[in-house]
Amino acid sequence: MQHSAKNSITSMLKSNQMLISTCLMGLEPAVLEHFLSRKIIYTAIQDNKFTKHFKPCVVRKIMRCMYQVEYPKGSFIMEEKQEGKNLFIVEEGKFQIEQEGSDEAIMGILGKLYGEEEFLMSHRRLSKIKAITNCKVWKLSRKVYKIIMKSTGENAKDLEILRNFPWFENADEDMLTKIANSIVLENFGTYEVLKLKNNTLYIINNGSVKILENKTDQVKENILGVLSRGDHFEGNTESENKMIAFYPGVELLTIDMDILKELIGERVDVRQETILEPVNENTTHDEDPSADIKLEDLEAIASLGKGSFGRVDLVRYSKDPNDIKLYALKVMEKHRTVKILQQSHVIDERKILFDCEHPFIIKLHKTFRDDMYIYMLFEACLGGQVWEILMKNGFFNDETSRFIAASAIEALDYLHRKKIIYRDLKTDNMVIDQNGYVKLVDFGLSKHLGFTGRTWSFCGTPCNIAPEIILNFGHDRAVDYWALGLMIYELLSGCSAFSDSNPRRAYEQIMDGIDSIDFSYLIVGRPAEDLIKKLCRQEPTERIGYRTIEDIREHRWFQGFDWKALISKSIKPPKCIVPSLKHPADISYVHPLEVDYTYTPIKEESNWDQAFE
Questions:
Q1: Fewer CB atoms < 10 Å away: N or C end of the chain?
Q2: Which domains, from first to last, does the chain contain?
Q3: Is residue 363 exposed (0-12), middle (13-18) or buried (19+ Cβ within 10 Å)?
Q4: pLDDT of residue 310
Q5: Catalytic residues, which ones?
């Protein structure tokens, strides 16, 4: 970028904080006083396939926060392979767009919004924009956009936290609003000891903390417990334990108890028991036969799958006298986990899975660690993936699809009651056990929301991502109902509702909505079509199941289905998904992958993974 453009950007960045404050107070910055510029920006937002779905209050704030930069002839407005940190609208001048891997350039269009996909999804840019003449450009930074989106729903989010908080179950809306206004944020960095105050209520808004015995003579840390998003506790400066933030830090919502009592008076019955006492987190139950298994007792038979996280091996317990005890061992490189900043996600996955005991959720037996890897030992389900069976059959009939969907619904209901969202429901993440029952696996994207209501991460499988995730609106359990609708569509038709090898086109289809697709002839006119459309409504709170999951169970597509028999496993699974295993260690329904077991990764010894012992 040329010198004058740099100076202009630098000066704008210096006033960035003031600009954010100004826009959020609802004032008009001088840069947008010109009516024509306002009209250009508004039209660009409304004509874009993604941003046209923004709510009017969001559009107004974006218009107020956009700032103007002048780019001289020959400079790059947008550069290739950079992160999508800005949105662009060129108001004046001529410019061209050069695509990666192409020698041809196309002329840009004035008043059109550029860079939105990389901006919304935090992707690297695959094209660049070059100024052919001097250009006048309106920009919006992603940092400001996030502030806008969060501030738009911040008050509602705080109120939702308090509505769900057990202390305030009898408070009216006026009282909850006053309490929400008293909330103060506190942040602690990686491995920082939390400096807590007496007489203060703390709610974890983001991140996790570990509770340690505060003994100076200890050679090794003794972890008493791990708290994560939604957990709460009272400050106690005389406690014998200390709390330390996991990577990348923790954000706490704090409420002064004196202020709280002053606000509440005698109007609300505040529950006096506190809050969450640290407890030892056992990795196995006493009756669990895997309790005595050690890492060195496990022998790899085959690799069941590979991904960016690592791999899953089918392993045999070498000390089993009958030689038939098999498990699935998830193996993750510690160094890579740290490199891609996934420590807190891995810790959350472990905590969530140990907290779950459900017939349709994969069971985590135990975890291990060494200098190079962390390990998670699961039950082995040898009937294969639902997706694999679906591909062999082409599609499933109503009976089989209902059985699989109902199993997912029971698992989601269980998770949602625990304030956990799954966020990656698809046929690939459902496996079949030896008796034909379906289980949910891979909790790498699951998150415990607790009382905090929503989260803002961009994650999921491109063809299954809900609209509110694409637009960074913040999301909650409604994304699981969206994914459930798409999974039912796939079960009945054998194909995805939104399918494209190009994620951008898939996102555009999703933003156009479920009503924009031509439903498969296998679904049209049947009760399942109505259920799918109700699960996949664009507005999250309007999706069936969001008010109560009973609305899904009572839908006419499930008419006559025996839910009690399913949860007790007294209902027989459909024959087409029941595996014909010749013996308990029969692996004919899984497809082993080639793995180089001699590979040795870089050691990682920062001790962030101590809970995996």
A1: C
A2: 3-147 (2.60.120.10), 165-264 (2.60.120.10), 282-382+581-613 (3.30.200.20), 385-579 (1.10.510.10)
A3: middle
A4: 82
A5: 424
